[in-house]
Amino acid sequence: MKTGLAIMLLTGVSAMPSLGLAAGKPGIGFSHKDWELACDNTGTCRAAGYQVEGAEPAVSLLLVRHAGARQEVSARIQLGSYAGSDVALAANVSHLVIKSGGRKLGTIDLLPGAQSSPLNGATLAAIVPALLQSSSLIFSSGKQDWTLSAAGASAVLLKMDEAQGRIGTIGALVRKGGKPESGVVQASVAPVVIAAAVPKHNDKDLLLPAAQRAALLKELRNTVGQEDCPGLYASEHGQEKSDLGVQRLSRSKLLVSTVCETYAYNQSGMFWVINPTPPFNPVSAADDANAYEDGEISASHKGRGLGDCWSSAIYTWDGKQFVLTKESTTGMCRLVAPGGAWELPTYVTTVRRSGGKAR
Q1: Of the candidates 269, 277, 321, 276, which has an alpha carbon nearest to the alpha carbon of residue 299?
Q2: Average pLDDT value over all residues in the chain
Q3: Which of 25, 175, 217, 327 has its CA 20 to 30 A from that of 313?
């Protein structure tokens, strides 16, 4: 099993190269050089740029644009906070001047104590053209400079325009034209998923009798081969060593899980929904996942051991099956912040409890 999104984060390879968002369809991901793009299934696109790989200090700029006509771009800046040296450089900095090619583009007032700060409209209006025309942007406190690479920005912003149907329109960022925005991709409402209630105090595994456990293992192995889940086939001295976690979802369904593989800094497992007694009839609920809690299976993976970039997915129990309710990454592995610089979703939903409360 492979952590595909985590590998994409580390290598900078586009996870989903086909473009052109359609209402309600899964989103797209694309990256080029020091910039990346993530568009979710509602049509919202997020483009993030970083310092040149290996350069210091770290910095990242996030551009966000919703689908639909007459939608403006918003932006946030984040100074590096992963390394102690970066934290020290940013300490007490409250104001930045933005420069490109020796020319002042605007200023930013940083929010005290905040991880990131927004750019005002006038400054943003000057930044986007500069990203397309120069090799970098300088964010200067007067004592320290943070250099944002523009390499890849043109390609990524063009993909954003393409995904939202803006190429050739008056609202395009890269290839402007005279067409109105009446034909651009319209924003979609995030799907609503009703999360079913699960038994409380469900933090301990159920114990199955030895005979039932053996029968369950046999059925599970009929669903997946040893090459895809070695842990399910583990044995020692002729004795089964496969560890199975079993938890109750409802009166008629249980959730069973096992660890398939443990890597240097990630763990991959599989989950199935089963009947409480034989025949168990296992149905795959999620693979490449690693945790379950309160009706949600999560798959969270580091892009590398430093923990500065992650991919994640969440599957929610709706009473019949586990459905994907969120998929995202935290951006490139550029040592911007512990846990990653941003949340860049490619799939979002609104999850509501059975009683109607959203989460």
Answers
A1: 269
A2: 91
A3: 217
* 133 three-state secondary structure: helix
pTM of this prediction?
A: 0.90
Closest listed residue to residue 75, CA positions, set 88, 63, 92: 63
What is the number of alpha carbons within 13 Å of residue 322 lying toward its C-beta? 31
Question: 164-176: per-residue pLDDT in tens?
Answer: 999 999 999 999 9
Identify the burial level of 95 via C-beta atoms within 10 angstroms of its C-beta, where 0-12 means exposed, 13-18 middle and 19 or more buried.
exposed
Helix (H) / strand (E) containing 128:
helix 121-133
Does position 237 have pLDDT exceeding 80, yes or no? no
Q: How far apart are CA 113 and CA 318, in angstroms?
A: 39
User: For residues 32 and 13, is the Cβ–Cβ distance under 8 A?
Assistant: no
User: What's 4-183's CATH class?
Assistant: mainly beta
CA 44 – CA 236 distance, rounded (Å): 51
300 vs 288: CA distance, rounded Å: 9
Domain spans of the chain, in order of start: 4-183, 192-353
244: pLDDT confidence band, cut at 50, 70 and 90? very high
Helices 153-163, 121-133: axis angle to 10 degrees equals 110
